[in-house]
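Quick one - first record:
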Amino acid sequence: MTARNRRAAEGTSGTEPTIAAAKIARNATLGAAAIAAAATVATAVLTGPSETRGTATAADPGSGATRPATSRTAPGGSTATAPGTDDGQASSSPSSDADAVSLLDQPPVEGRRVWRPGEARVGHEQHSRVLTAEPGCARSRSTSYNVIPGMRSFHAHAAVTDDSISGSVDVTVLLDGEPARTVSVAPGDEAEVAVDLGSAFRFTVRVGSFCSEPYTVVLIDPVLAP
């Protein structure tokens, strides 16, 4: 073996222990990192869930700007939304007058010339949406309507016009021919008429007899409501 070959062989055998030592050090470092990561996960599991916050955008009243709204995750997984979001708000569904149907807009099926749409002055106030009737002498007069499907009640105020002579008269609501509500009115009086229609098919509004004139009975704002 020449001197050059001997030196080369000695240089190669000298580097092998160094490479092996570097591999061992690298493996030890990776092992330590893995142990540290496992310890972090274990610590998080043992300490329990932490409070988390999510962001949403909500209007800031009065400024037109937006602000973050927060949500909290409670232990157990339920989420409660903080003020500023739409979640959890109750919808308002009060009954509306728009659902009611005016009797002035419904054609009667009987007694078309008894109760008629018109205007009247009652209690020094002018009313523009009324049904008016002039009682017959010695007999009652009535008008009948079919109940509109979905309507459950009838409501009005019975009265006598200010220019009528003194005296009282009865106003009666009948359901399928059976009296359901009767009120007695005179000039200066006003009586509420509220009737539950139930399962009735037809209802009738009857005005009692009154022989003297002038005398006009009115139903103020007569409506059917669901």
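second record:
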Amino acid sequence: MEGQREEKAPQKRVVVITDRETADGFLLSGTELRAFDNAEEGAREIERLLHDTAIKAILANEEFLEALDERTRRLAEESPIVVIELPAQRGGLAMPAHEDLLKMINRLKPQF
């Protein structure tokens, strides 16, 4: 009809959940970032986000994913939200983000 605008659905978000030491490496990616001091806090945030319909993908520190209880693991497996495991730090040095991982992040981000 004349005068009506078609409203676009809101863009779904990509969220990175990681430890504070690794978080700085993701600041330039333009994704939403949440950093935590321990695996239990990170696991609680992952569980919360799995219920958020505005989320498209969660990139999470592997230690945080390992801390999920069995019910939340099943929820993650059955969810339409893509959950991607990020390598945890080893030996005090953050593992560099792999080029393929950065490409995947860019494909998940909304196009502007």
